[in-house]
Structure formats: C-alpha cells, structure tokens
Amino acid sequence: MEQSKQLDGKRVLVTGGTGSLGKTLVKRLSTGEMGMPASITVFSRDEAKQHYMRLDHMRRDVATDDVIYENSHDILRFRIGDVRDYSAVCAALRDTDVVFHAAALKQVPSCEYFPFEAVLTNVIGAENIVRGIRENGLNIETVVGISTDKACKPINVMGMTKALQERIFIEANRSCAGTKFVCVRYGNVVASRGSIVPLFLEQIEQGHTVTVTLPEMTRFLLTLDRAVDTVFGAIVTGNRGDTYVPKVKAARISDVAKALMGDKDVPITYTGIRPGEKVHEIMVSEEECFRTIERNGFYVILPVLPELRENFDFQPALTSEYSSQDNNISIDELRELLKTANPDIERFMAASV
After folding, report:
1. CATH label of the domain that carries residue 162
2. 10, 23, 106, 150: which is the annotated catalytic residue?
3. Fewer CB in 10 Å around end: N or C, the chain?
4. Boundaries of domain holding 290
C-alpha cells in the first residue's frame, strides 16, 4: 500500500491494543509508515498482556526489566481500562486525535453462552466512544471501528453485536459532525489468538485427530498484515460512514487442515457445527451490493443512511453477495498463504513435508 503521512504527529488510541490485531497495528504504527505519531496509547483491561507487550516493545529481558512509566520518552503508552466503563473511555479519549477501536468479545461460542457480556463490550463499548466524543465536545478527527464478516447477515450473538457496532459508528457521523467514523469488516485472521490454525497445529504436532466442524464449511482467510492494510486504507481514503472490506481468499476449513498436515497422515474427525456458527461467511450481502464500490483495491460499502453518502453517481462493484462459499482456493494455494501468515507456521509446514 502506498505510504501516507496522515498520522504524522497524531495522538493515536488503540482499544484492545493487546489483541492479535492490536499488537500488529501498534507495531506498524510504530514504524512510521503512516507518519510517526506523537503517541500511541494501548487501552485494554489486562495488565499482564500490557506488561509483556511493553517488555517486547522495549526489547529487554523480563527478569531484569524495571519498567518506568512517567520518565519514558517512548511514543508507546499503556492505559488500563475497559471500553464498558464510560469514565475510563472519556479519560482515554481526551488526549487523542485518532481512535482504532479493536476491543471486542469475538469468540462465537462464548458470546452465545454469555450474550449480554457481548452486548456490554461490543455495543455499549462502541456507544461509550461515540457518547464520550459527543458529550464532551472532543476534537477527535477519525474513529475506525474494527468489525467482522459475522456482522453481515448475522445469525450469532457475536455477529449481531458487531452489526450494531457498525450501525452505531455509521450513525455517529450525524451526531458528531467534527469526527469521521469509518468501519473495517474482514474475515478470519490466520494464526490470531483463538483461531483454528493454532489448534490444528497443536493437534497435528501431538499426533491427535484433527477436529473440523463440517466438510463443506468455508471461511475468508487473511493475514494480520492484510487486516492492518485494510485499516490503513480506511484511514487514508475512507469517507464518513464507509465500511472497508478487503478482497481476500476463501477456503474450505478441511483444506486448511490438510495444507498444514503436509505429508503427515493425520485423521480428521467432523464434530458438527458449534453454537452460532455459519457454514459459509458473507462479507458483503446482496442487500449491500447496490451501494458497494471499488476503491484502491478494496470493496467499500457506502453508508446505509443516504444523507451520509457523498456520491450518488457510482457504478456498483458487485452484482451478488461476496461469500466464502465461492471461488475456494486449492490446498497448494493455501500452503503459500499460510506460510506468509506467520514464520512459525512456515517452519512447521517445512518440517511436515
């Protein structure tokens, strides 16, 4: 992606910054590829994850590091807080120009068993950001909401709450006139915490049966860097209310397992669909097709609220829904994709051949 200096000198806040996406986002922001921010603040509720992220960033030994908060001149900062807590969110927003909202409850079965917990984080958390900006008259330039393909025609609690998050941010462009709210929607991140790839690697390495839900189940797959590319794309060229969607590969989950196995003869057991799961994911629905355009290599869903659309004279980029069921890649293509996702996966696959 072409470099931009849009974040040069900006005070950046990353909610959920200790998660898989958050850490990759912070790492790339720290390189200055979008301009060197004045500060990058990681906002999350887990002090242990913040501690180890800090140590990793400082590249010091865990046993000897004495972390100094106040006297550090590093741009990376850490703030304990929960997006459910309005006062904590307001305190974090006061010294911020740009917000990347990645905090979420994202495990589908967990959200099914604790639906209101998902509402508190995914819905109330987003509203707390909007409310904090609106009620305090904060001069925040841009908020990027990180969503998921499960928000498109949702059937599970996680997707339903993320769909509401998208709508809260899109509508906020009306109530917070000085702030641009955009969203990013993408599929399964390969090798992220809690994803299927680490589970498959563990099962294969230990010689256990690999567990797959259904033979026909498919998912969109992308690397963490590709996810961050989409986030940066929304920052650089997104208009108020836009939702950015990457053009990525989709595959059968059973083929992911086979690609990781290499020459190993590991049995696959099909366990059946889990609570709240779809067989196929959809990134853009047929209802959204008529207002989806292409921009700089991404699909962009124009706002559902017509008064937020800046251009009514456009050519839709899609004629049908964008589904993981279509155009599945081969096992050989999957191997190449998996190798680029994480060096550990590449080493594991080399040893499996």
Report:
1. 3.40.50.720
2. 150
3. C
4. 11-187+223-247+283-321
